[in-house]
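=== Structure Prediction Worksheet ===
Name of assembly: unnamed complex
Input type: mixed (protein and possibly other molecules)
Chain count: three
Listed entries:
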Amino acid sequence: MAAAWCMPAAADERERAVAEVAQVYERIKIQQPLLQVHHQQLAQSLLSDALRALNVALSVMKQQRPSPAPATTPPVTSSVVVKAESPRSPSASADSEAIATPTERRPKKRSRSSVMEGNNKTSSSSWVDFTTVPYEDGYEWRKYGEKKINGTSYTRSYFRCTYKDDAGCLATKHVQQKDSSSDPPVFQVTYNNKHTCNNGKLILPFMNIKLEPPVLPPNTLAVQAYSALHDPFDQTMPPSQQEPSSLPVSMQQPCGAATSSTTTSSCISGAESCCDEFPVLDMAQMAAAAEASPGYDLLYEELSLLCDSFKFY
DNA sequence: TGAATTTGACCGAT
DNA sequence: ATCGGTCAAATTCA
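=== Predicted Assembly ===
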């Protein structure tokens, strides 16, 4: 998986990163059951360790991108990127006229060649992700179409980057709910073209680190694991550091990840050592904190997901 | 009232 | 002819 695209160079750094991640994985694995008893203090400690490890891993991975730079994966929220597909290769016949014959109903349509022309540039690529939260991947999308696809029970929704017009970003994706009756439902998300805008920023909430959008190739479990941890703590970020919530309500519904928690954390902006210095809470305080944090269950779930993701290391 | 979404037509590929 | 992807008018929403 992740190792498949890692270069042999800088092997020691990679080993260090793997060891770091593996260590945290073991710790989370062992202490996972205790989370339900010790609530946020332990969870935050583990999360801080996990995020630190992931940050190290990400740094190494960033340096070890394979030379035939694959498509940039958006910060996927949970789940697994399955494979990189062959690029869609829109044929751009530059001067084809293809005058659309206007119908009585709609005098529209221009030659598609002018549209496809832009897609025929260097960044054309696609990859597939399976996720339970297809609408939350850290980028801002605008829906532009929906289709019933043959052999599927659900319609497929088409999205393009919100900044297509502003920044000429050609990133698109389509979301297809799988037929399986799993709960929560699984969606296949197919991304086309990497983002060329600078608006899809992935912010590391605990470390206050920003990763530039074109960072990682597909199959980066660390990013997925990180992203899985990212959401429950969004509300802990001060407003100035939060991403603008651009997701329309209708798009948020399927993932049902509504969190209105007022979790307090002293680790939000701290450096790597913050997890060693948790404020000491007595049991009553911890219980109260847990009560006041509806997002805690979600956090616990995400920690489990993180554990699963780490298995692949 | 402007922005976002919906929806059916259009278009290229097969 | 059919299918998947996109366009853009119509509609909905904030």
